[in-house]
Specification:
This protein is α+β, with helices and mostly antiparallel strands. It has helices at residues 9-29, 48-63, 78-83, 93-101, 194-197, 235-244, and strands at 106-107, 118-125, 134-140, 143-145, 148-151, 153-159, 174-175, 185-186, 205-207, 211-214, 266-269. The chain has six helices and eleven strands. A six-stranded antiparallel beta sheet has the order 1-4-5-9-10-11, sandwiched between helices. The chain has a three-stranded mixed beta sheet with strand order 2-6-3, with no helix packed on it.
Protein backbone atom coordinates (compact mmCIF):
# COMPACT_ATOMS: atom_id res chain seq x y z
CA UNK A 1 0.00 0.00 0.00
CA UNK A 2 2.83 2.40 0.81
CA UNK A 3 4.33 1.92 -2.64
CA UNK A 4 1.08 1.89 -4.65
CA UNK A 5 0.80 4.64 -7.27
CA UNK A 6 -2.42 3.63 -9.06
CA UNK A 7 -5.99 4.84 -8.76
CA UNK A 8 -7.76 2.14 -6.69
CA UNK A 9 -5.72 0.47 -3.97
CA UNK A 10 -8.70 -1.58 -2.81
CA UNK A 11 -9.21 -3.32 -6.18
CA UNK A 12 -5.55 -3.53 -7.13
CA UNK A 13 -3.88 -4.41 -3.80
CA UNK A 14 -6.21 -5.08 -0.88
CA UNK A 15 -8.87 -7.25 -2.53
CA UNK A 16 -6.35 -9.58 -4.24
CA UNK A 17 -4.48 -9.91 -0.93
CA UNK A 18 -7.73 -10.93 0.77
CA UNK A 19 -8.43 -13.53 -1.92
CA UNK A 20 -5.09 -15.14 -1.13
CA UNK A 21 -4.79 -14.68 2.63
CA UNK A 22 -8.15 -13.93 4.30
CA UNK A 23 -8.95 -17.52 5.30
CA UNK A 24 -5.52 -18.08 6.84
CA UNK A 25 -5.56 -14.79 8.75
CA UNK A 26 -9.06 -15.42 10.07
CA UNK A 27 -8.01 -18.89 11.24
CA UNK A 28 -4.86 -17.50 12.90
CA UNK A 29 -6.89 -14.91 14.82
CA UNK A 30 -9.71 -17.26 15.82
CA UNK A 31 -8.23 -18.22 19.25
CA UNK A 32 -8.43 -14.55 20.34
CA UNK A 33 -12.16 -14.09 19.74
CA UNK A 34 -13.38 -15.21 23.19
CA UNK A 35 -12.26 -13.78 26.52
CA UNK A 36 -9.98 -16.30 28.22
CA UNK A 37 -9.78 -18.42 25.09
CA UNK A 38 -6.03 -18.13 24.45
CA UNK A 39 -2.90 -17.42 26.45
CA UNK A 40 0.72 -17.58 25.36
CA UNK A 41 2.36 -20.59 26.96
CA UNK A 42 5.42 -20.80 24.71
CA UNK A 43 6.64 -18.14 22.32
CA UNK A 44 6.30 -18.67 18.58
CA UNK A 45 7.01 -15.92 16.06
CA UNK A 46 3.83 -14.80 14.33
CA UNK A 47 1.52 -16.17 17.03
CA UNK A 48 -2.04 -14.73 17.36
CA UNK A 49 -0.95 -11.62 19.29
CA UNK A 50 1.71 -10.76 16.71
CA UNK A 51 -0.62 -11.52 13.81
CA UNK A 52 -3.29 -9.25 15.31
CA UNK A 53 -0.70 -6.51 15.76
CA UNK A 54 0.45 -6.75 12.14
CA UNK A 55 -3.18 -6.56 11.02
CA UNK A 56 -3.71 -3.50 13.23
CA UNK A 57 -0.93 -1.80 11.26
CA UNK A 58 -2.88 -2.48 8.05
CA UNK A 59 -5.95 -0.97 9.71
CA UNK A 60 -3.97 2.10 10.77
CA UNK A 61 -2.93 2.65 7.16
CA UNK A 62 -6.46 2.23 5.79
CA UNK A 63 -8.09 4.71 8.22
CA UNK A 64 -5.24 7.24 8.17
CA UNK A 65 -6.75 9.65 5.64
CA UNK A 66 -10.15 9.64 7.34
CA UNK A 67 -8.46 11.62 10.13
CA UNK A 68 -7.82 15.35 10.58
CA UNK A 69 -4.39 16.76 9.91
CA UNK A 70 -1.73 17.26 12.55
CA UNK A 71 -2.03 20.77 13.99
CA UNK A 72 0.32 23.32 12.37
CA UNK A 73 3.54 23.68 14.35
CA UNK A 74 3.24 20.25 15.98
CA UNK A 75 6.33 18.08 16.30
CA UNK A 76 6.28 15.34 13.65
CA UNK A 77 5.51 12.01 15.38
CA UNK A 78 8.16 9.33 15.03
CA UNK A 79 5.79 6.95 13.25
CA UNK A 80 5.17 9.61 10.56
CA UNK A 81 8.87 10.13 10.09
CA UNK A 82 9.50 6.40 9.69
CA UNK A 83 6.74 5.54 7.24
CA UNK A 84 5.79 8.82 5.47
CA UNK A 85 2.10 7.92 5.83
CA UNK A 86 0.86 10.83 3.71
CA UNK A 87 1.87 8.66 0.74
CA UNK A 88 -0.66 5.99 1.65
CA UNK A 89 -3.70 5.77 -0.65
CA UNK A 90 -7.24 6.04 0.65
CA UNK A 91 -10.14 3.59 0.73
CA UNK A 92 -13.81 4.33 1.34
CA UNK A 93 -15.59 3.53 4.59
CA UNK A 94 -17.53 0.70 2.90
CA UNK A 95 -14.32 -0.77 1.49
CA UNK A 96 -12.68 -0.63 4.91
CA UNK A 97 -15.59 -2.49 6.49
CA UNK A 98 -15.60 -5.01 3.64
CA UNK A 99 -11.92 -5.82 4.24
CA UNK A 100 -12.44 -6.70 7.88
CA UNK A 101 -15.77 -8.42 7.37
CA UNK A 102 -13.86 -10.97 5.30
CA UNK A 103 -11.56 -11.44 8.28
CA UNK A 104 -14.48 -12.19 10.61
CA UNK A 105 -14.96 -8.76 12.20
CA UNK A 106 -18.13 -6.74 12.76
CA UNK A 107 -18.60 -2.96 13.10
CA UNK A 108 -19.27 -1.60 16.58
CA UNK A 109 -22.27 0.41 15.39
CA UNK A 110 -24.08 3.24 17.13
CA UNK A 111 -23.60 3.09 20.90
CA UNK A 112 -23.36 5.77 23.58
CA UNK A 113 -19.87 7.07 24.33
CA UNK A 114 -17.67 4.60 26.18
CA UNK A 115 -13.84 4.70 26.08
CA UNK A 116 -13.77 0.96 25.43
CA UNK A 117 -15.51 1.61 22.09
CA UNK A 118 -14.47 5.17 21.24
CA UNK A 119 -11.24 7.04 20.56
CA UNK A 120 -11.67 10.80 21.01
CA UNK A 121 -10.55 12.58 17.84
CA UNK A 122 -11.84 16.07 18.66
CA UNK A 123 -13.40 17.68 21.75
CA UNK A 124 -15.84 20.58 21.62
CA UNK A 125 -15.78 21.85 25.19
CA UNK A 126 -19.22 22.18 26.79
CA UNK A 127 -19.78 25.31 28.86
CA UNK A 128 -20.99 23.17 31.78
CA UNK A 129 -18.04 21.29 33.33
CA UNK A 130 -20.27 18.38 34.42
CA UNK A 131 -21.90 17.87 30.99
CA UNK A 132 -21.52 14.19 29.97
CA UNK A 133 -19.62 13.11 26.88
CA UNK A 134 -21.88 13.23 23.82
CA UNK A 135 -20.83 11.86 20.42
CA UNK A 136 -21.22 14.48 17.68
CA UNK A 137 -19.74 12.56 14.75
CA UNK A 138 -17.93 9.42 13.59
CA UNK A 139 -14.57 9.75 11.85
CA UNK A 140 -13.99 6.05 11.14
CA UNK A 141 -15.79 2.84 12.20
CA UNK A 142 -14.62 0.59 15.02
CA UNK A 143 -14.48 -3.21 14.87
CA UNK A 144 -15.08 -6.19 17.15
CA UNK A 145 -13.73 -9.70 16.67
CA UNK A 146 -16.10 -11.76 18.73
CA UNK A 147 -15.70 -10.49 22.30
CA UNK A 148 -12.35 -8.85 21.49
CA UNK A 149 -12.02 -5.21 20.52
CA UNK A 150 -9.95 -4.91 17.35
CA UNK A 151 -10.17 -1.15 16.85
CA UNK A 152 -12.11 1.69 18.43
CA UNK A 153 -14.45 4.01 16.59
CA UNK A 154 -12.96 7.44 15.96
CA UNK A 155 -15.40 9.98 17.39
CA UNK A 156 -15.81 13.71 17.76
CA UNK A 157 -17.44 14.64 21.05
CA UNK A 158 -18.90 17.49 23.09
CA UNK A 159 -18.31 17.27 26.83
CA UNK A 160 -17.70 19.12 30.05
CA UNK A 161 -14.18 19.54 31.38
CA UNK A 162 -14.86 17.22 34.31
CA UNK A 163 -14.85 14.36 31.78
CA UNK A 164 -12.52 15.27 28.89
CA UNK A 165 -10.59 18.44 28.11
CA UNK A 166 -10.02 19.82 24.62
CA UNK A 167 -6.35 19.77 23.69
CA UNK A 168 -5.64 16.88 26.09
CA UNK A 169 -8.14 14.09 25.37
CA UNK A 170 -7.78 14.69 21.62
CA UNK A 171 -4.06 15.58 21.45
CA UNK A 172 -2.09 13.81 24.19
CA UNK A 173 -0.06 10.75 23.07
CA UNK A 174 -2.22 7.72 22.31
CA UNK A 175 -0.89 4.45 23.76
CA UNK A 176 -1.15 0.99 22.22
CA UNK A 177 -1.53 2.44 18.71
CA UNK A 178 1.11 2.67 15.98
CA UNK A 179 0.08 5.76 14.00
CA UNK A 180 -2.57 8.46 13.82
CA UNK A 181 -2.58 11.37 11.41
CA UNK A 182 -3.66 13.95 13.99
CA UNK A 183 -1.63 13.09 17.11
CA UNK A 184 1.41 11.38 18.56
CA UNK A 185 1.24 7.68 19.42
CA UNK A 186 3.20 5.09 21.36
CA UNK A 187 3.31 1.32 21.01
CA UNK A 188 5.84 -1.42 21.65
CA UNK A 189 7.27 -1.28 18.13
CA UNK A 190 8.47 2.33 18.20
CA UNK A 191 12.13 2.73 18.99
CA UNK A 192 13.09 -0.79 17.90
CA UNK A 193 14.55 -2.24 14.74
CA UNK A 194 12.37 -3.26 11.82
CA UNK A 195 12.47 -6.94 12.78
CA UNK A 196 11.43 -6.24 16.35
CA UNK A 197 8.41 -4.28 15.14
CA UNK A 198 6.83 -7.55 14.07
CA UNK A 199 7.45 -9.06 17.49
CA UNK A 200 5.08 -6.49 19.00
CA UNK A 201 2.00 -7.81 20.78
CA UNK A 202 -1.49 -6.55 20.11
CA UNK A 203 -3.21 -4.97 23.13
CA UNK A 204 -6.25 -7.09 23.97
CA UNK A 205 -9.45 -5.61 25.40
CA UNK A 206 -12.60 -7.72 25.81
CA UNK A 207 -16.31 -7.08 26.30
CA UNK A 208 -18.28 -9.64 28.30
CA UNK A 209 -21.73 -9.52 29.86
CA UNK A 210 -20.22 -8.62 33.22
CA UNK A 211 -17.33 -6.27 32.49
CA UNK A 212 -14.88 -4.46 30.22
CA UNK A 213 -11.59 -6.36 30.46
CA UNK A 214 -8.75 -4.03 29.47
CA UNK A 215 -5.16 -4.82 28.47
CA UNK A 216 -5.60 -8.42 29.61
CA UNK A 217 -2.06 -9.59 28.83
CA UNK A 218 -0.47 -7.13 31.26
CA UNK A 219 -0.05 -7.40 35.02
CA UNK A 220 -2.95 -6.00 37.09
CA UNK A 221 -3.21 -2.22 37.36
CA UNK A 222 -0.88 -1.15 40.14
CA UNK A 223 0.12 1.88 42.17
CA UNK A 224 3.71 1.23 41.06
CA UNK A 225 5.36 1.98 37.72
CA UNK A 226 7.31 -0.58 35.66
CA UNK A 227 10.45 0.03 37.73
CA UNK A 228 8.59 -0.66 40.97
CA UNK A 229 8.53 3.01 41.99
CA UNK A 230 5.30 4.57 43.32
CA UNK A 231 3.31 6.04 40.44
CA UNK A 232 2.67 9.78 40.51
CA UNK A 233 -0.83 9.34 39.12
CA UNK A 234 -3.96 9.14 41.25
CA UNK A 235 -6.03 5.91 41.03
CA UNK A 236 -8.62 7.73 38.90
CA UNK A 237 -5.91 9.03 36.56
CA UNK A 238 -4.41 5.55 36.19
CA UNK A 239 -7.82 4.08 35.42
CA UNK A 240 -8.61 6.78 32.85
CA UNK A 241 -5.27 6.23 31.16
CA UNK A 242 -5.88 2.51 30.75
CA UNK A 243 -9.48 3.04 29.59
CA UNK A 244 -8.88 5.94 27.18
CA UNK A 245 -5.30 4.98 26.22
CA UNK A 246 -4.38 8.64 26.67
CA UNK A 247 -4.56 11.45 29.20
CA UNK A 248 -7.94 13.17 29.20
CA UNK A 249 -7.59 15.98 31.78
CA UNK A 250 -4.83 17.91 33.58
CA UNK A 251 -2.99 15.77 36.10
CA UNK A 252 -3.03 16.42 39.83
CA UNK A 253 0.79 16.36 39.64
CA UNK A 254 1.76 18.23 36.45
CA UNK A 255 5.31 16.85 36.65
CA UNK A 256 3.93 13.35 36.02
CA UNK A 257 2.87 14.26 32.47
CA UNK A 258 6.00 13.10 30.62
CA UNK A 259 6.17 9.69 32.31
CA UNK A 260 2.44 8.89 32.33
CA UNK A 261 1.64 5.58 30.63
CA UNK A 262 -1.04 2.91 31.10
CA UNK A 263 -0.51 0.94 34.29
CA UNK A 264 -1.66 -2.53 33.35
CA UNK A 265 -4.63 -4.86 33.29
CA UNK A 266 -7.93 -3.40 34.47
CA UNK A 267 -11.47 -4.78 34.82
CA UNK A 268 -14.37 -2.32 34.81
CA UNK A 269 -17.79 -3.75 35.71
CA UNK A 270 -20.58 -2.94 33.27
CA UNK A 271 -23.36 -0.87 34.79
Amino acid sequence: MAEYQGGDVFLDVVDPWLDEHADAVREALAPLAAFGGWTRTTYEFGDPLETAYALSRVSDALIYKFQPLLLPGSEIPWAHDIHKPERWPQVTRDQYLAVFARLGMAPIGDVAFEPFFHEVVHVAQHERPAAPVEITGTVWPGLMFGEMLFSRTGATVRAGAQHVVAGIADRSPLHGVFVRRYRDTSDGSLGWGSNSQWKTDFRRDYLTDAAFHLDVDEEPDSDQDFLGEPTRLTPAERSDLVRHRCLTRPLQDPDAWQSASPGGRLTVPRI
